[in-house]
Amino acid sequence: MVSLLLVIIYLAFISLGLPDSLLGSAWPVMYRQFDVPLSYAGIVSMIIAGGTIISSLLSDRLTRKFGAGLVTAISVFLTAVALFGFSLSNSFLLLCIWSVPYGLGAGAIDAALNNYVALHYAARHMSWLHCCWGIGASISPNIMGYCLVNGFGWNNGYRSVAIIQIVLSAFLFLSLPLWKRNSSEPSGSEKKSASLGFVQTLSITGVKFILPAFLAYGALESTAGLWASSYLVNARGIDTDTAAEFASLFYFGITFGRFLCGFVSGKIGDKRLIRIGSIIILVGIALLGLPSGADGLVTTGLVVIGFGCAPIYPSIIHATPAFFGEENSQAIIGIQMASAYIGSTFMPPLFGAIASYSNIRVYPLYLLFFLVLMLVMSELLNRTVAKNPVTEN
After folding, report:
1. Residue 242 parent element (H or E)
2. Which residues contact 84 (CB under 8 A, 6 or more apart)?
3. Does residue 167 share a domain with residue 49?
4. What's this model's pTM, rounded to 2 decimal places?
5. What sign for the dihedral angle of Cα 181, 183, 187, 192?
6. What are the angstrom distances between the C-alpha of 200 and each of 195, 204, 207, 331?
7. Which of 155, 156, 160 is nearest to 139 (CA)?
8. Which of 32, 75, 348, 362 is the least crowded, having the fewest Cβ atoms under 10 Å away?
9. Contacts of 95 (CB under 8 A, 6+ apart)
10. pLDDT (tens digit, 9 = 90+) per residue, 212-266?
């Protein structure tokens, strides 16, 4: 029965990834229809991100009250309704309105599922869980592309994904008895104590290090993906088709890397995986900065960075109960998610501003800054936890 629940959890994380790349795929058509500037996609993204941050911060209270299964099922249904609302929208204002439940649902799913898997399953399942997100994020652009190419319109692209989400939410509601049965085991300690307030959570030893680490990771991954093509074209003189191809391979590196990490994570351990991933990212950044004439290695650097990113996010999350105690893990994972979203929302536009005033060639240095910040904070956390080990209640 537990294996069946695990399959359902994987499906839920695929559903989390499904909507994430829809806006980027459809916006070139949508903004013309709504007669708004191209840049207005940023407004929609910011509203979604705001809802995601809020629901991540509230995840501890919600999960303790209703359980991870019910929170996940309702959240998937909420995103399905929001996507269906997108498909019916005939104005930019309506898109903004539907973006609110879209973001609220996504953040709750992310935090609840990450904590549940960290508590109940081995490290390999956390890697495969995040691999499933990549699968979902890869499927949806193909659905949208099919609808656009065949004349069905972006509305039907959103509607198709909404239908998939509705079906997945139905499976999640049907699976609620499995969640309750698994949570009744000793490891299901997320309901043993009262929920923590934001200030209480921040006061826990080591939390001040994990939050900047997550912000730095979110900034690094999002900036690397968003500005990859622009860097290759404008700084390295690579043609746009080749640049777009290798920029997409950055995400392939993350997804495939997480699939592979699932087979070795139990043997290597979370701390070592974070260090190994950081070293691989450093190699990738070094490749990006190679002098002219090494374009083949430069483009490969993006794939290497993606491969290095693969183990870091799942490993930090999976280590959270061990670092801070199972009774605190949901609250801490919630604010970890919020920190990562802040980094992925605000740091890529900041790089755009920096590049416009200086040069896009600073791209590798910008990535290096966040890599160093993430690694330093992670190592400080390791030392702090070693000096103040968690005692089980």
Report:
1. helix 240-268
2. 158, 159, 162, 166
3. yes
4. 0.80
5. negative
6. 10, 7, 10, 10
7. 160
8. 32
9. 30, 34, 44, 86, 89
10. 999 999 999 988 887 887 888 888 887 777 777 777 788 788 888 988 888 888 7
